[in-house]
TrEMBL record, chains A, B:
Keyword NADP in record: no
Enzyme Commission no: 2.1.1.131
Superkingdom of origin organism: Bacteria
Residue spans crossing the bilayer: none
Keywords: Cobalamin biosynthesis, Methyltransferase, S-adenosyl-L-methionine, Transferase
UniProt domain Tetrapyrrole methylase: residue ranges: 1-209
Leading EC class: transferase
InterPro entries membership: 4pyrrol_Mease, 4pyrrol_Methylase_sf, 4pyrrole_Mease_sub1, 4pyrrole_Mease_sub2, Cbl_synth_CobJ/CibH_dom, Precorrin_MeTrfase
Protein source organism: Halonatronomonas betaini
Protein's UniProt name: Precorrin-3B C(17)-methyltransferase
Pfam family of the protein (one): TP_methylase
GO biological process, one term: cobalamin biosynthetic process
GO MF annotations in UniProt: precorrin-3B C17-methyltransferase activity
Pathway: Cofactor biosynthesis; adenosylcobalamin biosynthesis
Length: 242, 242
Protein backbone atom coordinates (compact mmCIF):
# COMPACT_ATOMS: atom_id res chain seq x y z
CA UNK A 1 0.00 0.00 0.00
CA UNK A 2 1.17 3.50 -0.89
CA UNK A 3 -0.14 6.21 1.44
CA UNK A 4 -0.14 9.75 0.10
CA UNK A 5 -0.06 11.81 3.26
CA UNK A 6 -0.75 15.47 3.95
CA UNK A 7 1.34 16.25 7.04
CA UNK A 8 -0.39 19.61 7.63
CA UNK A 9 1.20 23.04 7.33
CA UNK A 10 4.26 22.63 9.56
CA UNK A 11 4.10 21.79 13.23
CA UNK A 12 3.39 18.13 13.93
CA UNK A 13 0.66 19.34 16.29
CA UNK A 14 -1.36 20.23 13.22
CA UNK A 15 -1.02 16.74 11.71
CA UNK A 16 -3.99 14.39 11.96
CA UNK A 17 -3.85 11.42 14.34
CA UNK A 18 -4.27 9.15 11.32
CA UNK A 19 -1.31 10.65 9.45
CA UNK A 20 0.83 10.38 12.55
CA UNK A 21 -0.11 6.72 13.12
CA UNK A 22 0.54 5.72 9.53
CA UNK A 23 3.88 7.53 9.42
CA UNK A 24 4.95 5.53 12.46
CA UNK A 25 4.01 2.16 11.01
CA UNK A 26 5.26 2.39 7.41
CA UNK A 27 8.58 0.92 6.27
CA UNK A 28 9.53 3.75 3.91
CA UNK A 29 8.88 7.51 3.90
CA UNK A 30 9.51 9.47 0.72
CA UNK A 31 9.45 13.25 0.62
CA UNK A 32 10.98 16.57 -0.33
CA UNK A 33 13.77 17.27 2.14
CA UNK A 34 12.12 20.27 3.85
CA UNK A 35 9.07 18.12 4.60
CA UNK A 36 11.10 15.19 5.95
CA UNK A 37 12.77 17.66 8.29
CA UNK A 38 9.36 18.80 9.55
CA UNK A 39 8.53 15.24 10.66
CA UNK A 40 11.99 14.20 11.86
CA UNK A 41 10.72 13.59 15.41
CA UNK A 42 8.28 10.98 14.13
CA UNK A 43 10.70 9.01 11.97
CA UNK A 44 12.44 6.08 13.66
CA UNK A 45 15.82 4.53 12.91
CA UNK A 46 14.18 1.41 11.49
CA UNK A 47 12.50 3.33 8.73
CA UNK A 48 13.95 3.99 5.31
CA UNK A 49 13.69 7.57 4.07
CA UNK A 50 14.19 8.80 0.55
CA UNK A 51 14.45 12.44 -0.37
CA UNK A 52 15.19 14.58 -3.39
CA UNK A 53 15.01 18.25 -4.30
CA UNK A 54 12.44 20.70 -5.58
CA UNK A 55 10.87 19.86 -8.97
CA UNK A 56 12.06 16.28 -8.64
CA UNK A 57 8.54 15.05 -7.95
CA UNK A 58 8.71 12.40 -10.65
CA UNK A 59 11.85 10.92 -9.16
CA UNK A 60 10.23 10.68 -5.73
CA UNK A 61 7.02 9.18 -7.08
CA UNK A 62 8.93 6.51 -9.01
CA UNK A 63 10.95 5.64 -5.93
CA UNK A 64 7.81 5.42 -3.80
CA UNK A 65 6.17 3.13 -6.36
CA UNK A 66 9.32 1.00 -6.52
CA UNK A 67 9.42 0.58 -2.74
CA UNK A 68 5.70 -0.23 -2.66
CA UNK A 69 5.97 -2.77 -5.47
CA UNK A 70 8.79 -4.47 -3.56
CA UNK A 71 6.36 -5.11 -0.70
CA UNK A 72 7.09 -2.18 1.59
CA UNK A 73 4.38 -0.17 3.30
CA UNK A 74 5.30 3.21 1.91
CA UNK A 75 4.30 6.82 2.56
CA UNK A 76 4.91 9.77 0.28
CA UNK A 77 4.36 13.12 1.97
CA UNK A 78 3.26 16.64 1.10
CA UNK A 79 2.96 19.61 3.39
CA UNK A 80 -0.58 20.87 4.00
CA UNK A 81 -3.07 18.64 2.23
CA UNK A 82 -1.56 16.25 -0.32
CA UNK A 83 -4.59 16.88 -2.55
CA UNK A 84 -4.00 20.66 -2.86
CA UNK A 85 -1.09 21.37 -5.24
CA UNK A 86 0.54 18.32 -3.60
CA UNK A 87 1.55 14.76 -4.41
CA UNK A 88 -1.89 13.07 -4.62
CA UNK A 89 -2.45 14.12 -8.22
CA UNK A 90 0.91 13.31 -9.82
CA UNK A 91 1.14 9.97 -7.98
CA UNK A 92 -2.25 8.90 -9.35
CA UNK A 93 -1.47 10.32 -12.78
CA UNK A 94 1.70 8.30 -13.05
CA UNK A 95 0.12 5.09 -11.72
CA UNK A 96 -2.69 5.47 -14.26
CA UNK A 97 -0.38 6.29 -17.14
CA UNK A 98 1.98 3.39 -16.50
CA UNK A 99 -0.82 1.07 -15.43
CA UNK A 100 0.94 0.05 -12.20
CA UNK A 101 -1.04 -2.37 -10.00
CA UNK A 102 -0.63 -0.53 -6.72
CA UNK A 103 -3.17 0.37 -4.05
CA UNK A 104 -3.05 3.98 -2.97
CA UNK A 105 -4.84 5.87 -0.23
CA UNK A 106 -4.87 9.62 0.28
CA UNK A 107 -4.69 10.75 3.92
CA UNK A 108 -5.97 14.33 3.97
CA UNK A 109 -4.32 17.07 6.03
CA UNK A 110 -5.00 20.66 7.05
CA UNK A 111 -4.29 22.75 3.91
CA UNK A 112 -2.01 25.81 4.09
CA UNK A 113 -4.98 28.04 3.18
CA UNK A 114 -7.00 26.92 6.19
CA UNK A 115 -4.05 27.04 8.57
CA UNK A 116 -3.25 30.58 7.36
CA UNK A 117 -6.90 31.53 7.80
CA UNK A 118 -6.85 30.34 11.42
CA UNK A 119 -3.79 32.50 12.12
CA UNK A 120 -5.50 35.55 10.61
CA UNK A 121 -8.95 35.10 12.16
CA UNK A 122 -11.87 33.85 10.06
CA UNK A 123 -11.36 35.12 6.51
CA UNK A 124 -12.63 32.03 4.62
CA UNK A 125 -16.07 32.06 6.17
CA UNK A 126 -17.73 32.67 2.83
CA UNK A 127 -17.26 31.14 -0.63
CA UNK A 128 -13.58 31.14 -1.53
CA UNK A 129 -11.15 30.19 -4.28
CA UNK A 130 -7.58 29.01 -4.13
CA UNK A 131 -5.33 29.99 -7.03
CA UNK A 132 -1.68 29.15 -7.50
CA UNK A 133 0.18 32.03 -9.16
CA UNK A 134 3.00 29.75 -10.30
CA UNK A 135 3.21 29.61 -14.09
CA UNK A 136 5.59 26.67 -14.20
CA UNK A 137 2.80 24.12 -14.70
CA UNK A 138 -0.07 26.40 -15.78
CA UNK A 139 -0.18 28.96 -18.61
CA UNK A 140 -0.36 32.54 -17.35
CA UNK A 141 -3.43 33.23 -19.51
CA UNK A 142 -5.39 30.59 -17.61
CA UNK A 143 -4.25 31.89 -14.22
CA UNK A 144 -5.26 35.39 -15.28
CA UNK A 145 -8.73 34.25 -16.28
CA UNK A 146 -9.23 32.73 -12.85
CA UNK A 147 -7.96 35.82 -11.02
CA UNK A 148 -10.46 37.91 -12.97
CA UNK A 149 -13.36 35.53 -12.25
CA UNK A 150 -12.50 35.44 -8.54
CA UNK A 151 -12.35 39.23 -8.32
CA UNK A 152 -15.56 39.76 -10.32
CA UNK A 153 -17.67 37.27 -8.35
CA UNK A 154 -16.52 38.62 -4.97
CA UNK A 155 -14.85 35.40 -3.82
CA UNK A 156 -12.51 35.44 -0.85
CA UNK A 157 -9.27 34.65 -2.68
CA UNK A 158 -6.33 32.57 -1.45
CA UNK A 159 -3.07 32.88 -3.39
CA UNK A 160 -0.61 29.98 -3.26
CA UNK A 161 2.95 30.46 -4.59
CA UNK A 162 2.25 34.18 -4.84
CA UNK A 163 5.67 35.57 -5.75
CA UNK A 164 9.26 34.44 -6.17
CA UNK A 165 12.50 36.23 -6.84
CA UNK A 166 12.15 35.51 -10.58
CA UNK A 167 8.34 35.81 -10.82
CA UNK A 168 6.78 39.05 -9.73
CA UNK A 169 4.27 40.17 -12.32
CA UNK A 170 1.52 37.71 -11.30
CA UNK A 171 1.04 39.27 -7.87
CA UNK A 172 1.33 42.78 -9.31
CA UNK A 173 -1.41 41.97 -11.81
CA UNK A 174 -3.61 40.42 -9.11
CA UNK A 175 -3.30 43.48 -6.89
CA UNK A 176 -4.07 45.88 -9.75
CA UNK A 177 -7.00 43.85 -11.03
CA UNK A 178 -8.57 43.48 -7.59
CA UNK A 179 -8.08 47.21 -6.95
CA UNK A 180 -10.13 47.78 -10.06
CA UNK A 181 -12.99 45.58 -8.75
CA UNK A 182 -12.88 45.95 -4.97
CA UNK A 183 -12.39 48.81 -2.53
CA UNK A 184 -8.75 49.81 -1.84
CA UNK A 185 -9.66 49.22 1.83
CA UNK A 186 -10.41 45.51 1.23
CA UNK A 187 -8.50 43.66 3.95
CA UNK A 188 -5.64 41.36 2.99
CA UNK A 189 -3.82 38.92 5.25
CA UNK A 190 -0.39 37.43 4.65
CA UNK A 191 1.03 34.52 6.61
CA UNK A 192 4.64 33.45 6.17
CA UNK A 193 6.08 30.14 7.42
CA UNK A 194 2.67 28.99 8.62
CA UNK A 195 2.92 26.93 11.77
CA UNK A 196 6.72 26.74 11.40
CA UNK A 197 9.61 28.45 13.11
CA UNK A 198 9.54 32.14 12.37
CA UNK A 199 5.83 32.33 11.56
CA UNK A 200 4.86 35.90 10.66
CA UNK A 201 1.50 37.44 9.92
CA UNK A 202 0.59 40.76 8.40
CA UNK A 203 -2.81 42.41 8.14
CA UNK A 204 -3.05 45.07 5.48
CA UNK A 205 -5.32 46.32 2.70
CA UNK A 206 -5.39 45.79 -1.05
CA UNK A 207 -4.05 49.28 -1.65
CA UNK A 208 -1.20 48.89 0.82
CA UNK A 209 -0.36 45.25 0.02
CA UNK A 210 3.47 45.28 0.21
CA UNK A 211 4.42 43.22 -2.83
CA UNK A 212 8.10 43.04 -1.91
CA UNK A 213 7.32 41.36 1.42
CA UNK A 214 5.57 38.42 -0.29
CA UNK A 215 7.57 35.35 -1.24
CA UNK A 216 7.15 31.62 -1.89
CA UNK A 217 6.83 30.91 1.84
CA UNK A 218 3.81 33.24 2.03
CA UNK A 219 0.10 32.56 1.68
CA UNK A 220 -2.00 35.60 0.78
CA UNK A 221 -5.73 35.89 1.55
CA UNK A 222 -7.74 38.71 -0.01
CA UNK A 223 -11.07 39.36 1.73
CA UNK A 224 -14.37 39.77 -0.12
CA UNK A 225 -16.35 43.03 -0.21
CA UNK A 226 -17.80 42.33 3.27
CA UNK A 227 -14.57 41.33 5.06
CA UNK A 228 -13.24 43.56 7.81
CA UNK A 229 -10.44 43.75 10.36
CA UNK A 230 -11.31 44.08 14.05
CA UNK A 231 -9.07 43.65 17.09
CA UNK A 232 -6.32 42.26 14.92
CA UNK A 233 -8.54 39.63 13.27
CA UNK A 234 -9.51 39.36 9.60
CA UNK A 235 -13.19 38.39 9.57
CA UNK A 236 -15.54 37.62 6.70
CA UNK A 237 -19.18 37.73 7.89
CA UNK A 238 -21.68 35.16 6.68
CA UNK A 239 -25.02 36.78 7.37
CA UNK A 240 -25.85 35.35 10.77
CA UNK A 241 -28.24 37.47 12.78
CA UNK A 242 -26.00 37.93 15.83
CA UNK B 1 -9.33 31.32 26.50
CA UNK B 2 -11.96 30.28 23.98
CA UNK B 3 -10.75 27.73 21.41
CA UNK B 4 -12.71 27.46 18.18
CA UNK B 5 -11.90 23.95 17.05
CA UNK B 6 -12.36 22.18 13.73
CA UNK B 7 -12.72 18.51 14.65
CA UNK B 8 -12.29 17.31 11.07
CA UNK B 9 -14.92 15.64 8.91
CA UNK B 10 -16.04 12.83 11.20
CA UNK B 11 -13.77 10.09 12.47
CA UNK B 12 -11.55 11.21 15.33
CA UNK B 13 -8.66 9.71 13.36
CA UNK B 14 -8.93 12.70 11.04
CA UNK B 15 -8.70 15.21 13.90
CA UNK B 16 -5.39 17.00 14.44
CA UNK B 17 -3.24 16.10 17.42
CA UNK B 18 -3.60 19.71 18.62
CA UNK B 19 -7.41 19.64 18.50
CA UNK B 20 -7.42 16.34 20.37
CA UNK B 21 -5.07 17.63 23.08
CA UNK B 22 -7.04 20.82 23.61
CA UNK B 23 -10.37 19.00 23.75
CA UNK B 24 -8.94 16.82 26.52
CA UNK B 25 -7.72 19.73 28.65
CA UNK B 26 -10.60 22.23 28.44
CA UNK B 27 -13.26 22.57 31.15
CA UNK B 28 -16.20 23.12 28.83
CA UNK B 29 -17.06 21.89 25.32
CA UNK B 30 -19.86 23.58 23.39
CA UNK B 31 -21.22 22.19 20.15
CA UNK B 32 -24.11 21.14 17.96
CA UNK B 33 -25.31 17.76 19.20
CA UNK B 34 -24.24 15.75 16.15
CA UNK B 35 -20.69 17.04 16.55
CA UNK B 36 -20.55 16.33 20.29
CA UNK B 37 -21.57 12.77 19.45
CA UNK B 38 -18.67 12.49 17.00
CA UNK B 39 -16.18 13.25 19.80
CA UNK B 40 -17.91 11.39 22.63
CA UNK B 41 -14.92 9.08 23.13
CA UNK B 42 -12.69 12.07 23.89
CA UNK B 43 -14.98 13.80 26.40
CA UNK B 44 -14.42 12.88 30.06
CA UNK B 45 -16.90 12.91 32.93
CA UNK B 46 -15.19 15.94 34.49
CA UNK B 47 -15.95 18.13 31.53
CA UNK B 48 -19.07 20.24 31.10
CA UNK B 49 -20.76 19.97 27.72
CA UNK B 50 -23.37 22.29 26.30
CA UNK B 51 -25.35 21.54 23.19
CA UNK B 52 -28.22 22.99 21.21
CA UNK B 53 -29.88 22.40 17.87
CA UNK B 54 -29.39 23.44 14.28
CA UNK B 55 -29.57 27.20 13.58
CA UNK B 56 -29.02 27.92 17.28
CA UNK B 57 -25.47 29.08 16.65
CA UNK B 58 -26.02 32.34 18.50
CA UNK B 59 -27.18 30.53 21.62
CA UNK B 60 -24.11 28.29 21.60
CA UNK B 61 -21.73 31.18 21.01
CA UNK B 62 -23.22 33.17 23.89
CA UNK B 63 -22.95 30.19 26.19
CA UNK B 64 -19.34 29.60 25.17
CA UNK B 65 -18.51 33.26 25.83
CA UNK B 66 -20.29 33.09 29.19
CA UNK B 67 -18.31 30.03 30.28
CA UNK B 68 -15.06 31.61 29.08
CA UNK B 69 -15.76 34.90 30.86
CA UNK B 70 -16.40 32.94 34.06
CA UNK B 71 -12.82 31.65 33.89
CA UNK B 72 -13.30 28.29 32.18
CA UNK B 73 -11.05 27.02 29.44
CA UNK B 74 -13.70 26.54 26.78
CA UNK B 75 -13.88 24.94 23.34
CA UNK B 76 -16.59 25.50 20.74
CA UNK B 77 -16.50 22.95 17.94
CA UNK B 78 -17.35 22.69 14.25
CA UNK B 79 -17.03 19.69 11.98
CA UNK B 80 -14.41 19.95 9.25
CA UNK B 81 -12.53 23.23 9.57
CA UNK B 82 -14.15 25.80 11.90
CA UNK B 83 -13.12 28.53 9.45
CA UNK B 84 -15.09 27.09 6.49
CA UNK B 85 -18.84 27.78 6.92
CA UNK B 86 -18.19 26.99 10.61
CA UNK B 87 -18.11 28.71 13.99
CA UNK B 88 -14.90 30.79 13.66
CA UNK B 89 -16.65 33.63 11.84
CA UNK B 90 -19.80 34.08 13.94
CA UNK B 91 -17.84 33.75 17.20
CA UNK B 92 -15.49 36.56 16.17
CA UNK B 93 -18.34 38.62 14.75
CA UNK B 94 -20.24 38.49 18.02
CA UNK B 95 -17.17 39.18 20.17
CA UNK B 96 -16.37 42.20 17.98
CA UNK B 97 -19.93 43.49 17.94
CA UNK B 98 -20.41 43.23 21.70
CA UNK B 99 -16.84 44.25 22.43
CA UNK B 100 -16.21 41.30 24.76
CA UNK B 101 -12.70 41.08 26.20
CA UNK B 102 -12.03 37.44 25.45
CA UNK B 103 -9.03 35.75 23.87
CA UNK B 104 -9.88 33.37 21.06
CA UNK B 105 -7.77 30.97 19.06
CA UNK B 106 -8.84 29.07 15.95
CA UNK B 107 -7.58 25.49 15.73
CA UNK B 108 -7.84 24.49 12.07
CA UNK B 109 -9.08 21.09 10.94
CA UNK B 110 -9.34 19.05 7.75
CA UNK B 111 -12.22 20.65 5.78
CA UNK B 112 -15.01 18.47 4.38
CA UNK B 113 -13.95 19.43 0.84
CA UNK B 114 -10.45 18.05 1.29
CA UNK B 115 -11.62 14.92 3.09
CA UNK B 116 -14.13 14.26 0.30
CA UNK B 117 -11.39 14.83 -2.27
CA UNK B 118 -9.17 12.22 -0.58
CA UNK B 119 -11.99 9.68 -0.75
CA UNK B 120 -12.51 10.38 -4.46
CA UNK B 121 -8.85 10.49 -5.54
CA UNK B 122 -7.18 13.81 -6.33
CA UNK B 123 -9.84 16.14 -7.78
CA UNK B 124 -8.68 19.42 -6.14
CA UNK B 125 -5.19 19.32 -7.63
CA UNK B 126 -5.78 22.51 -9.57
CA UNK B 127 -7.34 25.87 -8.64
CA UNK B 128 -10.69 25.30 -6.95
CA UNK B 129 -13.64 27.12 -5.42
CA UNK B 130 -15.94 26.17 -2.61
CA UNK B 131 -19.52 27.43 -2.83
CA UNK B 132 -22.31 26.83 -0.35
CA UNK B 133 -25.65 26.44 -2.15
CA UNK B 134 -27.62 27.29 0.99
CA UNK B 135 -29.64 30.47 0.54
CA UNK B 136 -30.51 30.87 4.22
CA UNK B 137 -27.64 33.30 4.89
CA UNK B 138 -26.76 34.34 1.32
CA UNK B 139 -29.01 35.78 -1.40
CA UNK B 140 -29.52 33.36 -4.31
CA UNK B 141 -28.46 36.03 -6.81
CA UNK B 142 -25.01 36.16 -5.22
CA UNK B 143 -24.68 32.38 -5.15
CA UNK B 144 -25.67 32.26 -8.81
CA UNK B 145 -23.05 34.81 -9.76
CA UNK B 146 -20.38 32.68 -8.12
CA UNK B 147 -21.58 29.46 -9.77
CA UNK B 148 -21.34 31.20 -13.14
CA UNK B 149 -17.85 32.56 -12.46
CA UNK B 150 -16.62 29.14 -11.30
CA UNK B 151 -17.99 27.43 -14.41
CA UNK B 152 -16.66 30.06 -16.81
CA UNK B 153 -13.12 30.15 -15.41
CA UNK B 154 -12.81 26.35 -15.36
CA UNK B 155 -12.37 26.02 -11.60
CA UNK B 156 -12.75 22.64 -9.94
CA UNK B 157 -15.92 23.35 -7.96
CA UNK B 158 -16.86 22.04 -4.51
CA UNK B 159 -20.50 22.40 -3.48
CA UNK B 160 -21.33 22.53 0.23
CA UNK B 161 -24.97 22.18 1.39
CA UNK B 162 -25.87 21.18 -2.16
CA UNK B 163 -29.53 20.18 -1.77
CA UNK B 164 -32.15 19.68 0.92
CA UNK B 165 -35.70 18.39 0.94
CA UNK B 166 -37.02 21.96 0.71
CA UNK B 167 -34.27 23.42 -1.51
CA UNK B 168 -33.66 21.76 -4.86
CA UNK B 169 -33.40 24.46 -7.53
CA UNK B 170 -29.83 25.53 -6.64
CA UNK B 171 -28.29 22.21 -7.59
CA UNK B 172 -30.52 21.92 -10.70
CA UNK B 173 -29.32 25.35 -11.81
CA UNK B 174 -25.68 24.46 -11.13
CA UNK B 175 -25.92 21.27 -13.16
CA UNK B 176 -27.63 23.03 -16.09
CA UNK B 177 -25.23 25.97 -16.08
CA UNK B 178 -22.14 23.77 -15.94
CA UNK B 179 -23.54 21.59 -18.73
CA UNK B 180 -23.70 24.74 -20.79
CA UNK B 181 -20.00 25.53 -20.16
CA UNK B 182 -18.32 22.14 -19.74
CA UNK B 183 -18.51 18.77 -21.47
CA UNK B 184 -21.38 16.48 -20.36
CA UNK B 185 -18.61 13.95 -19.68
CA UNK B 186 -16.98 16.17 -17.02
CA UNK B 187 -16.45 13.90 -14.02
CA UNK B 188 -18.34 14.59 -10.81
CA UNK B 189 -17.76 12.97 -7.42
CA UNK B 190 -20.22 12.85 -4.55
CA UNK B 191 -19.30 11.79 -1.02
CA UNK B 192 -21.96 11.31 1.64
CA UNK B 193 -21.26 11.03 5.37
CA UNK B 194 -17.57 11.68 4.83
CA UNK B 195 -15.42 9.75 7.27
CA UNK B 196 -18.53 8.76 9.27
CA UNK B 197 -20.56 5.59 9.60
CA UNK B 198 -22.23 4.80 6.31
CA UNK B 199 -19.77 6.74 4.14
CA UNK B 200 -20.76 6.46 0.48
CA UNK B 201 -19.05 7.68 -2.66
CA UNK B 202 -20.31 8.00 -6.19
CA UNK B 203 -18.37 8.81 -9.34
CA UNK B 204 -20.47 10.08 -12.20
CA UNK B 205 -20.54 12.79 -14.88
CA UNK B 206 -22.18 16.19 -15.14
CA UNK B 207 -24.78 14.84 -17.53
CA UNK B 208 -25.65 11.88 -15.33
CA UNK B 209 -25.39 13.67 -11.96
CA UNK B 210 -28.31 12.12 -10.03
CA UNK B 211 -29.84 15.17 -8.34
CA UNK B 212 -32.21 13.13 -6.17
CA UNK B 213 -29.31 11.25 -4.57
CA UNK B 214 -27.73 14.47 -3.26
CA UNK B 215 -28.68 15.76 0.19
CA UNK B 216 -27.32 17.94 3.00
CA UNK B 217 -24.93 15.17 4.11
CA UNK B 218 -23.32 15.19 0.65
CA UNK B 219 -20.33 17.08 -0.70
CA UNK B 220 -20.23 17.41 -4.49
CA UNK B 221 -17.02 17.99 -6.47
CA UNK B 222 -17.25 18.93 -10.15
CA UNK B 223 -14.00 18.40 -12.07
CA UNK B 224 -12.47 21.00 -14.39
CA UNK B 225 -12.15 20.52 -18.16
CA UNK B 226 -9.02 18.37 -17.68
CA UNK B 227 -10.27 16.08 -14.90
CA UNK B 228 -10.75 12.39 -15.63
CA UNK B 229 -11.73 9.14 -13.93
CA UNK B 230 -9.31 6.23 -13.98
CA UNK B 231 -9.38 3.01 -11.96
CA UNK B 232 -12.14 4.41 -9.78
CA UNK B 233 -10.27 7.62 -8.96
CA UNK B 234 -11.25 11.17 -9.88
CA UNK B 235 -8.04 12.92 -10.93
CA UNK B 236 -7.34 16.51 -11.96
CA UNK B 237 -3.94 16.78 -13.66
CA UNK B 238 -1.66 19.72 -12.96
CA UNK B 239 0.71 19.72 -15.86
CA UNK B 240 3.60 17.69 -14.48
CA UNK B 241 5.71 16.01 -17.13
CA UNK B 242 5.33 12.45 -15.85
Amino acid sequence: MLYIIGIGPGSNQKMTIEANNILQKVDVIVGYKTYLKLIKDIISQNQITYTSGMREEKDRIEKAIEYTAAGNKTAIISSGDAGVYGMAGPVMELITKKNYQIDVEVIPGVPAANAAAAVLGAPLMHDYVTISLSDILTPWEQIKKRIKAAAQADFVTVLYNPRSSRRKKQLNFTKEYFLDKRSPETPVGIVRNISREGQEKLLTTLEKLPLEKVDMLSTVIIGNSQSYISEGKLITPRGYNL
